[in-house]
């Protein structure tokens, strides 16, 4: 399970509580601006044993940026995590999933892995029925599920996580530790 865009107060606490209750580790693709605003929430993610990935410093669509600006967005995020939290970032996800092929070369050069998703839950539309439809129809044993740590999805995030866990159990799927699954 992966979560994009946080950490966001009021949402991340629900997410961490649900994951802890079910002993699941997740990969959080955080935004640097949010990490700077809420360092205590970032520490909580790390203290609970989750993985943090790079979702850029400002969540700008990379295709609209110059090569130099892309490098700055990605490296500034990594610098922030290294300096403020002693954490080395190994995974990257482009904002909105939009990137150019030269972004992959840059990510590889920075010793990171680009991690996209295979199951988009549409939780950001704040429609639990849509989440249920996506998960029921498209969940498979190797799914990389994307949810959002955001204001838009916070009202349905608890139910969404619960439903995903139940659906996975019904299909005899389990959740692996992110860094192991992505080797």
Please, could you describe this protein's structure?
GO terms for molecular function: hydrolase activity, acting on carbon-nitrogen (but not peptide) bonds; hydrolase activity, acting on glycosyl bonds; metal ion binding. This is Putative xylanase/chitin deacetylase. It comes from Ignavibacterium album (strain DSM 19864 / JCM 16511 / NBRC 101810 / Mat9-16). There is one protein chain. The chain contains eight helices and seven strands, in the order βαβααβαβαββαβαα. The chain is α/β, with parallel strands linked by helices and 183 residues long. The protein has a single domain, classed as TIM Barrel (Alpha-Beta Barrel). α1 runs parallel beside α7 and α6 packs parallel to α7. The longest helix is centred in the middle third of the chain and has 19 residues. The model has no long low-confidence stretch (mean pLDDT 97).
């Amino acid at each position: 399970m992966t979560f994009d865009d946080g950490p966001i107060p009021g949402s991340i606490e629900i997410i961490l509580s649900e994951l802890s209750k079910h002993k699941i580790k997740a990969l959080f693709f955080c935004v640097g601006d949010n990490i700077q605003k809420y360092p205590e929430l970032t520490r909580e993610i790390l203290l609970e044993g989750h993985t943090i990935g790079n979702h850029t410093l400002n969540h700008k669509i990379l295709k609209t940026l110059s090569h130099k600006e892309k490098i700055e967005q990605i490296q500034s995020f990594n610098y922030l995590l290294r300096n403020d939290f002693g954490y080395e970032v190994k995974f990257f996800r482009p904002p909105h999933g939009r990137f150019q092929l030269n972004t992959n070369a840059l990510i590889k050069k920075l010793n990171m892995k680009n991690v996209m998703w295979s199951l988009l839950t549409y939780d950001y539309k704040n429609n639990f029925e849509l989440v249920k439809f996506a998960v029921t129809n498209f969940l498979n044993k190797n799914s990389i599920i994307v949810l959002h740590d955001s204001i838009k999805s916070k009202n349905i995030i608890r139910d969404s996580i619960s439903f995903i866990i139940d659906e996975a159990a019904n299909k005899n799927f389990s959740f692996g530790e992110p860094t192991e699954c992505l080797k």
